[in-house]
Fold each of these.
Amino acid sequence: HIFLIADLHMLTKPEKIVNARLQSLTTAKSLLALGVDLSRTTLIRQSKVYQHTSLAWILSCFTKYSRALNMIQFKVNIN
């Protein structure tokens, strides 16, 4: 089994960066508390896989802004 802790997805606002590491650790602790067996499971922190951010950059180069606005995953901060 493989569990991904998607810590880059939580970074939608600058103030959340401070808590990102703590929340990732809390998520890992919760998985272990639920009984995830580390001898049969791999925990992966998204921010430790550099290929993820590289691919995100490449995809953002080819995604039109109008198309991104139609996706629920795309956030626009208007302040």
Amino acid sequence: MKQRFERFDMEMQSVVLENGLKVFYIPKPGFSKTFAMLATNFGAIDRAFTMNGVRYDTPAGIAHFLEHKMFEDQDGNALQKFGKTGASPNAFTSYSMTAYHFSCTDGFEQNLEILLKFVFTPYFTEENVAKEKGIIAQEINMMEDTPSWKAYVGVYEGMYHEHPVNTSIAGSVESISEITPEILTTCHKAFYSPANMTLVVCGTADFDRIVEMAKELSPKEAAKVAARHYGTVQETVAMAEVIRHMAVSRPNFMLGIKDMPLAEGESQLRRQLVGELAARILCGNTAPLFVSLYKDRLITRNFDSSYTIMPQVAAILFGGDSQDPYAVRDRIAAEIQRYAHEGVAQELFARMKKACYGLDVRMLDQPESLCHTQAESSFAGECCLDFAELHETITVQDVQEMFVRWAQPDRMTLSVVLPPKTK
């Protein structure tokens, strides 16, 4: 299928293979690099699942560990193979997705073959798994020494009672010690099925050749994707405050506001756009509250916000450094209540809506961001390039309804990393 997006002078070609693998190609004439991403709808939150009638409860950090181990092949390491072609490969694990990608200026087909082969062909041994535990343990320890990461993990720990988003993506040194080749193989069978995956290419390539290679190098049949378990949905937060002490000169904080999960049939892309717009109106870098907090020296330039959607999860996060995170929390809470009761001025709404649209348009010239966004959208059955039409449907009432939800009692968690306690 070929879709044309006239307002951006762009097109997207797509097909779903017989095994369920979704393939997308976004041409970028004139770009020197081509970017490819192979992603699976499997992340750190997918630890508990049922496959073939058997329930599995896997260790925290299993998706991240599996990402590391996928680069191992019987005939060498995939990173070394990419190195010989001159490509730039990498991978990441989020709470809801694992993705493997590369960019290259030439030799695209050779690099795509490497990507497809190693992701669909697991190779786990007792020796290479044991070796990886030491490597990942070092990575975990480095993350544990990062104040902003501790604040980030803490805010989800405080917001969610049972949902596995309340634990770190990488797990802990203790949890990864339980990982075995058998557990990794089970997770690969459960979630690395072509029916649970997406291939997105952006740049200069031949779509027919991409499809031909995907058919040839992906499994002919797709295993049934496992059923996931996330616990009972609860509207209120588990803890209003999560406090940790580290060697910081100034407190680092993350403020989370728990939103309602997506309703059945609701567009994830549209909810994301409304959430980002509400966050920008509330405390974006040109919002009245941001200017006031900055003028009062309660926030710094590293203050940022993000709206996140995952299965049975939706939340807005604000974070950065502050001499008084509690004052920032109280001012944000008061502004939410004001917008919930008084509404948002039409002029402010229109200005911030244009700003959000501009940021989304900027993404169109960033192949990595474009592939990432399309992979996420495809898992929700949507197309990321539909954002323009969806923007036009968003009203000031949509934003106020979100503020009304945020204003409900016990929806807010403050995660703070404070300087060491004085003796």
Amino acid sequence: MISFHITESDHCRSVGSFLRNLLPTGSLAYLKKLVRSGNVALNGLPVLSQQVLLLSGDRLTVKESSKTASLVRAGRTGPDILHEDQWIIVINKPPGLAMHKTAEEGEDLVQLGTRFLAGRDGFPGKLRPVNRLDRGTSGVVVLAKSPTAAGMFGRLVMGSGLSKVYLAIVQGRIPREGKINLSLEGKEAETGFRSLFQSETMALAAVYPTSGRMHQIRKHFQSIGHPVCGDRRYGGQKLAERDGIFLHSFRTSFIHPSTGEKMSLLAPLPEDFLTMIRGLAGEYYSPLLRDLSTIPAETH
């Protein structure tokens, strides 16, 4: 057996995501077979679904074979993949990485994902974003692998949509929970939030946007006097700890339009975000981190 101790960098990662990143050149069918055949165990018990979440401190074991060993030796390359199937690839975008090519030099997320798939599978096309994040925001981004998939997921977004939960560190003391209603772009916009931890100067909040206007969360928290930390554009203080703002797209849920499967994809937090929470919460850091996996998918 090959054994792995789960650390904070993989906290709230699904088993399927862990295997996809551990064995980046393995086929999707092979990864499914590993789980279906009972060759993957979590804390000594067989894993029954790739959507099972890993928590910091867990131990994951994979039955060793010559094929698995060779795939592990190939090493982890490419983007942080949260989910992949024949239709989409879902990536945990790091802060500071643009979605599309900009005037500045450097690779963007679409290029990064497309190049990875081309090198691994000879992928001939170009990835198409189903959702977008600001350059400074990290977390879940869904990318379609073909025009057909883009159309399928585009209709999903226009219909039932993607249900999203963000984590944000904002300035000041905020209410325990609330809703911000402020029109943006001349259209109605609503953002729900719930305080997860409050210090004297900052708060960690779970954020639930029920509309998708540009910069909605950032503008809404600025409007109530609690800008997102690091967001200088909307009143936040510049912080040296992060190449971006302290806003992370943590969970994205949807019904897969092809398979009908209910998907709930969580993106582990970047290291600097975890460091910020550790400084914010102090002795309460460990239980706060543990409870992130239980954050509800929507406000009540």
Amino acid sequence: MIDYGFKEELVLDWISVRKDRKATNTKTALKRFVKQVELSGEDINEVLGVCIDKSWRSFNASWLKSIDRF
């Protein structure tokens, strides 16, 4: 994720969220997450920050429409 452009601190935080939520960190999960982030059209680190704030173990671009932050 860092090579893709995500900030290291955010990546480490999100991995912790996923671990706490019992989500396995697989290549497939990462690819699907990145695809949804791209579909959102938003800043990748902003999206990752929202995922951390909301304790989301995954992400769907449509979720941003239902929260106040966006």
